[in-house]
Design brief:
Blueprint lengths: L5 H15 L13 E6 L10 H19 L3 E4 L2 E2 L4 H10 L3 H18 L10 E2 L3 H17 L2 E11 L4 E3 L4 E2 L2 E2 L6 E11 L5 H6 L9 H11 L2 E10 L5 E6 L10 E4 L5 H6 L5 H12 L3 H5 L7 E9 L6 E7 L10 E4 L5 H10 L7 E2 L20 E2 L10 H14 L3 E6 L5 E2 L1 E2 L9 E4 L3 E4 L27 H4 E3 L6 E4 L3 E2 L2 H4 L2 H4 L12 H4 L7 E4 L7 H14 L12 E3 L3 E3 L2 E2 L10 H8 L1 H10 L7 E2 L2 H21 L15 H24 L2 H19 L6 H18 L4 H10 L28 E3 L2 E4 L1
Parallel strand pairs: 1-2, 1-26, 3-4, 12-14, 26-27, 28-30
Antiparallel strand pairs: 5-6, 5-9, 7-8, 9-19, 10-11, 10-13, 10-18, 12-15, 13-14, 16-17, 20-25, 21-22, 21-24, 23-24, 28-29, 31-32
Helix pairs in contact: 1-24, 2-19, 3-4, 18-19, 19-20, 20-22, 21-22, 21-23, 22-23, 23-24
C-alpha cells in the first residue's frame, strides 16, 4: 500500500469491531479489575459538534488504554433526550418531539460510530423511553413515601421564553440556563425534593472528593453556601404577626435601626392589609416582581424601598424599628427578612443614607475606648468589641454572638442555627416532553401516588404545544381524567413533568443493568463498577448536574440500593473548543462540522487534533493548520513503515545486543512507553502523550533512512513499530489496527497487552554536567 486511505481503512475496522462485538462488556468475574469510564451523556440536538468530539475522544483514550492494561472496562453511551429543545423544535418546526429526538439519536449514534468510539452499544439508554423514565417515577414515589418529595406553593423562577419554572441552580446571572432569556418570580404549586435535608452532608463530603478539580469543589461549597448564625423572632407592634430574621452578626442587633423584607416575603401582604400604605406597597412589590432577577440584584443597582407603616420590636431592647420592603433583599438568602444595621453593613448603610434612616454604631475596634461622635461615612463590617448594647458591652464579637444566641433561645425568641444558599429542588415543569409526575389528585383522598404496578405513566402520543394556559398535558383529556387508585372515584392526574436533571442524576446506574424490568438496577450488578472511576464533562455542570447527582446517590443509599456516599471518584472537566476567539456556536457562525473533518481527513486525524492541540483541561483553539499537521503525522508514520516493512523480522524475534542508532531507538521506544503510560494513566496529559509518539517516529525515521540494516537494527525497528501501534492506538485506533495487521499481529491491537517498560533502558549511560564558577561557564 503506497498511501494511507483513511476512509477505506476506518470503515473496515469499524465493521470488524461491530461484527466481533469487541466493545461489549460482560459482568466481571470475581477478582477482575474493573474501570468505569463515563462521559456526560449528550442531548440529541441534531448533530455532534467539535466539543462533543473532544469530550468523547478523551474518554475513549482512557477506556482503550484501560482495556489494554487488562481491566474490565465499562464504557457506554446514552441520550439525555427529554427537555425543552425537542419541545421547542416541535413548536417552531411543526415536528413531533419524539420523532425529532429519535431521528437525532440515530444521526448522532452514526457519527459516534464513524469516529470509532469504543462504546458498548448493547447498553445504550435514552431517557425519553418508557423503559427508562418509569424508574424516574419509581424513585419519585419512594421519595414521596419518605417525605423527601413534597408539594408546596412558592414564588419560583419563571422563564417566559421557555414557559416553565426553573430551579435556582438553573438561573445564571438572572437569566435562564437553557435559553438565556430573562427570569422573573411567580407563585406556583410545585413539587420539591428536600435537597436541603442533605445540605450538611453534601458540603462536608466535598473534602472527600480528592479526585475532583479544586475549582469544582469551591463552586459547590459556595453554591451550598452554609452560613452559621442565629435566627431571631421580631414581633410586629400592635398585631399578632411576627417575622423571623437570620443573621450572622447577632452581636450588632442593638444597632438595628430598621427591618427590610424582600418583595416576595409572605408577610408583606398581611402587614399592609387594611392600611393606607397598602396601595403604595403593593405597587412597589409588583414593580419588583415584574423585573428579571439580574436587573433587580445586579451590582450597583439603586437602592429602592417602601415603608410599610408598621414597626418590629427588637426582642433584646424592646425598641420599635420601622419595617421596609427593599429591593436589595433576596428571598432565597436566609429568611428573606433582615435586621438592618447600617453602621456595620454597607448595603444597609446605602439604603439608610438614601432614606434618611438612623445609623447607630455598636461595634468598636479592639483597643479603642468608644466612638468620636462624628456621623459615619461608610459601614465598618469588621468584628470588634460590643458597645452601647446593654449587658453585652465589652464582649468581643465572637463571644457576644455565642452569648446572645444562647440568651435568645433561653428567652424563647431565637436560637443559633445555620442557613444555606442551596434550596429544595423544584422538579415540576409545565412542559410536555418530560417524565410525567406519578401523582393523582382525588377530592376524597388528596394527592395519591400512582401504584407501582401501574407504572410507567406514559406520555400521550400528542399534546397541544405552544398553547397558553399551563402544561400541555392539562389539555389532553384522556390523560388527565383517571380513577383514584385508592377509592376508585373520578380524579385528575398531575400534568407537570419532571425537570430533566432527574434523568441525568442516575442514568449511569441504568447502563449497568439496562434490560431490568423489575427495578432501576440490580444492586449486585452495579457493585463491581461503582463509584464511577472517571467522569468527564464540562465545568458548566458544577452546580447543576453534579450537585443533583451527589444528592441522588445519597438518597439511593438511604433507600438501600447502594452502599456508598459519593458516586464519582475522579472528575475531569475538559476545556471548550474556541474558534475566532469565541466558543463554537451556531449563533456565532463559527461551527466546524465534524463530519466535514472526518470526510476530508479521517476520524483518526480529527480525534488526534482534538487531543494534541491543547492540554485537555484547557480551551482548544480550532486551527485548520493544526488538523493538517496531524494528518501529516499519520501519513509520515505510514511512509516510514512502508520503507522498512519488508525488512522487519517476524513477530517475537529476540532482539540481540545493539548499540549506536539501534540502541538509541530501543531507549526512545521504552521511554515512550513510560511517558505515554504516565501521561494517560496518572496525569491525563494526552497532548504530551501524542508528542512523545511524534518524537518516537522521528527516531524511527533516523534508523529507517539507512540503506544497510543488520539484524539488531531490524529487530529494534519491529519493536518500535509494534510499540507505536499499541501506544498510539487509543488516540488513532483505526490507523493502529491497520498498522498492527500489516505487522502481522494477531487479533485486534485493542486486545493486546499494553507494552511493558524495560527500566534498564530508561537509565542514562552518561550525562552532561555543566560547571559554573560565579555564574560563568568553566567546564562541561
Amino acid at each position: 500500500m503506497s498511501g494511507y486511505d483513511a476512509k477505506r481503512i476506518e470503515a473496515r475496522w469499524q465493521s470488524r469491531w461491530d461484527e466481533e462485538r469487541v466493545f461489549e462488556t460482560a459482568h466481571p468475574e470475581p477478582g477482575d479489575r474493573t474501570y468505569y469510564c463515563l462521559e456526560m451523556l449528550p442531548y440529541p440536538s441534531g448533530k455532534i459538534h467539535r466539543g462533543h468530539v473532544r469530550n468523547y475522544s478523551i474518554g475513549d483514550v482512557v477506556a482503550r488504554y484501560r482495556r489494554m492494561r487488562g481491566e474490565s472496562v465499562m464504557h457506554v453511551m446514552g441520550w439525555d433526550s427529554f427537555g425543552l429543545p425537542a419541545e421547542n423544535a416541535a413548536i417552531h418546526r411543526g415536528a413531533d418531539p419524539g420523532e425529532w429526538t429519535r431521528s437525532n439519536i440515530a444521526t448522532m449514534r452514526g457519527q459516534f460510530k464513524r469516529l470509532g468510539f469504543s462504546y458498548d452499544w448493547s447498553r445504550e439508554v435514552a431517557t425519553c423511553e418508557p423503559e427508562f423514565y418509569r424508574w424516574n417515577q419509581w424513585f419519585f414515589l419512594r421519595m414521596l413515601e419518605k417525605g423527601i418529595a413534597y408539594r408546596a406553593k412558592r414564588l419560583l423562577n419563571w422563564c417566559d421564553d421557555c414557559a416553565t419554572v426553573l430551579a435556582n441552580e438553573q438561573v445564571i446571572s438572572g437569566r435562564c440556563w437553557r435559553c438565556d432569556g430573562p427570569v422573573r418570580r411567580r407563585e406556583f404549586d410545585q413539587w420539591f425534593l428536600r435537597t436541603t435535608d442533605y445540605a450538611d452532608e453534601l458540603l462536608e463530603d466535598i473534602d472527600r472528593l480528592e479526585g475532583w478539580p479544586d475549582r469544582v469543589r469551591t463552586m459547590q461549597r459556595n453554591w451550598i453556601g452554609r452560613s452559621a448564625g442565629a435566627e431571631v423572632r421580631f414581633d410586629v407592634a400592635d398585631s399578632d404577626l411576627s417575622i423571623e430574621v437570620f443573621t450572622t452578626r447577632i452581636d450588632t442587633i442593638y444597632g438595628a435601626t430598621y427591618m427590610a423584607l424582600a418583595a416576595e416575603h409572605p408577610a408583606v401582604k398581611s402587614l399592609v392589609e387594611g392600611t393606607d400604605r397598602r396601595e403604595e406597597v403593593h405597587a412597589f412589590v409588583e414593580a419588583q416582581l415584574s423585573k428579571n432577577l439580574e436587573d433587580r440584584f445586579a451590582e450597583g443597582v439603586e437602592k429602592l424601598g417602601v415603608f410599610t407603616g408598621r414597626y418590629a420590636i427588637n426582642p433584646f431592647n424592646d425598641e420599635q424599628i420601622p419595617i421596609w420592603v427593599a429591593n436589595f433583599v433576596l428571598m432565597d438568602v436566609g429568611t428573606g427578612a433582615i435586621m438592618s444595621v447600617p453602621a456595620h453593613d454597607q448595603r444597609d448603610f446605602d439604603f439608610a443614607t438614601t432614606f434618611g434612616l438612623e445609623i447607630r454604631p455598636v461595634i468598636r475596634p479592639v483597643g479603642s475606648e468608644g466612638f468620636d461622635g462624628k456621623p459615619p461615612t461608610e459601614a465598618t463590617p469588621e468584628y470588634g468589641v460590643v458597645h452601647s448594647s446593654g449587658e453585652y458591652d465589652g464582649l468581643e464579637s465572637a463571644e457576644a454572638c455565642a452569648k446572645m444566641a444562647a440568651d435568645a433561645e433561653a428567652r424563647g425568641f431565637g436560637r443559633a442555627t445555620r442557613t444555606y444558599r442551596l434550596k429544595d429542588w423544584g422538579v415540576s415543569r409545565q412542559r410536555y416532553w418530560g417524565t410525567p409526575i406519578p401523582v393523582i389528585y382525588c377530592e376524597e383522598c388528596g394527592p395519591v401516588g400512582v401504584p407501582d404496578d401501574q407504572l410507567p405513566v406514559l406520555l400521550p402520543d400528542k399534546a397541544p404545544l405552544g398553547e397558553p394556559g399551563g402544561s400541555p398535558l392539562s389539555m389532553v383529556e384522556t390523560f388527565v381524567h383517571v380513577d383514584c387508585p385508592t377509592c376508585g372515584k373520578p380524579a385528575r392526574r398531575e400534568t407537570d413533568t419532571m425537570d430533566t436533571f432527574v434523568d441525568s442524576s442516575w442514568y449511569y446506574f441504568r447502563y449497568l443493568d439496562p434490560q431490568n424490568t423489575q427495578a432501576p438496577f440490580d444492586p449486585a450488578k452495579q457493585a463491581p463498577w461503582m463509584p464511577v472511576d472517571l467522569y468527564i464533562g464540562g465545568i458548566e455542570h458544577a452546580t447543576l448536574h453534579l450537585i443533583y447527582t451527589r444528592f441522588w446517590s445519597k438518597m439511593m443509599r438511604d433507600l438501600g440500593l447502594v452502599e456508598y456516599d459519593e458516586p464519582v471518584t475522579r472528575l475531569f472537566t475538559q476545556g471548550m473548543v474556541i474558534k475566532d476567539g469565541f466558543k463554537m456556536s451556531k449563533s456565532k457562525g463559527n461551527v466546524v462540522d465534524p463530519d466535514e473533518m472526518v470526510e476530508r481527513y479521517g476520524a483518526d486525524t480529527t480525534r488526534l487534533f482534538c487531543l494534541f492541540a491543547a492540554p485537555p483541561e484547557r480551551d482548544l483553539d480550532w486551527s485548520e493548520t493544526g488538523v493538517e499537521g496531524c494528518a501529516r503525522f499519520l501519513n509520515r508514520i505510514w511512509r516510514v513503515f512502508d520503507r522498512v516493512a519488508q525488512q522487519l523480522p517476524p513477530h517475537g524475534t529476540e532482539i540481540p545486543p545493539v548499540d549506536g542508532e539501534a540502541f538509541a531507538l530501543r531507549r526512545k521506544t521504552h521511554r515512550t512507553i513510560h511517558r505515554v503510560t504516565e501521561d494517560i494513566g496518572a496525569r491525563l496529559h494526552l497532548n504530551t502523550a501524542v508528542s512523545a509518539v511524534m518524537e518516537l517516529i522521528n527516531t524511527i525515521a533516523t534508523l529507517a533512512d539507512g540503506s544497510e540494516r543488520d539484524a539488531g537494527e531490524r529487530a529494534a525497528l519491529r519493536e518500535a513499530f509494534e510499540t507505536l501501534a499499541k501506544v498510539l492506538s487509543p488516540f488513532a485506533p483505526h490507523f493502529c489496527e491497520e498498522l498492527w495487521s500489516r505487522l502481522g499481529g494477531s487479533g485486534f491491537v485493542l486486545q493486546c497487552a499494553w507494552p511493558e517498560v524495560d527500566r534498564a533502558l530508561l537509565i542514562e549511560d552518561s550525562v552532561t554536567l555543566v560547571v559554573q564558577v560565579n555564574g560563568k561557564l568553566r567546564a562541561r
